[in-house]
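Exercise: predict the structure of this protein bound to magnesium ion.
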Amino acid sequence: MSAQPANATVIRATDVCKAFDSGRLRTQVLDRLSLTIDAGELTLISGPSGCGKSTLLAILSGLQKVDAGHVSALDSELGQLSLSELERFRLLHTGFVFQGFNLFPALTAAEQVELPLTHLGLSTHDARKRAVQSLEEVGLGHRMRLRPAELSGGEKQRVAIARALAKQPQLLFADEPTSALDAANGQTIIDLLHRIAHNHGTAVLCVSHDPRLVAHADRVLTMEDGRILSDRRRDAATEKTSS
Ligand SMILES: Nc1ncnc2c1ncn2[C@@H]1O[C@H](COP(=O)(O)OP(=O)(O)OP(=O)(O)O)[C@@H](O)[C@H]1O
Ligand SMILES: [Mg+2]
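Solution:
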């Protein structure tokens, strides 16, 4: 499904700086941060609250601009894209999953998943077909006609994952996707993200404090003081510490 071979580098951030001003106070959130993210892996980003994890996801997905440095994603230099090109980049290539699910209360599970597909230009028939496939892939084939109020937290998160997955994105971003869920549902979500990375060749980049997720990630990046402090791969004995 993905055009990228597994293990291809799909995101490269170089010396990224980002600060926020509030009143007189300037907070340097990212300080010459560099990283690469590969296809076909579940990469976890952990680090203390407020260290800039969500900001980093927003930057890597083209939602926020950097103050300095570069981000290239799927061979696009994000800093050089216009707002409409960035929007198109996100629509075509990225999927998002959030802690709070971000579902529309009035829509059924199937409709939630179909909606972005119609924005992609798929016909109603094709959008429905792909939505059904994605909902089946997350184990919700039998819950497609239910609305969020009729679904459990874990099921809602699986609808949100199906919605992201149905776009067949090469980049999937998840910000604390398990923190609103109990242990069993959190585990299901982790397994699902892992499976998506491996089966579809998607680069799955997930921010989490969840220690259960650490054990399941292919790679764990730890952030501190605006940089990547450590970079560990599960399968390799190599542990790299950035300078
Ligand atoms: N739009 C903004 N305006 C001003 N400050 C901001 C803005 N967005 C983030 N910040 C600040 O940047 C810092 C990093 O925020 P961010 O949300 O990226 O942290 P985080 O690591 O995701 O934290 P958490 O684990 O609590 O979600 C915080 O100090 C936050 O207050
Ligand atoms: Mg955050």
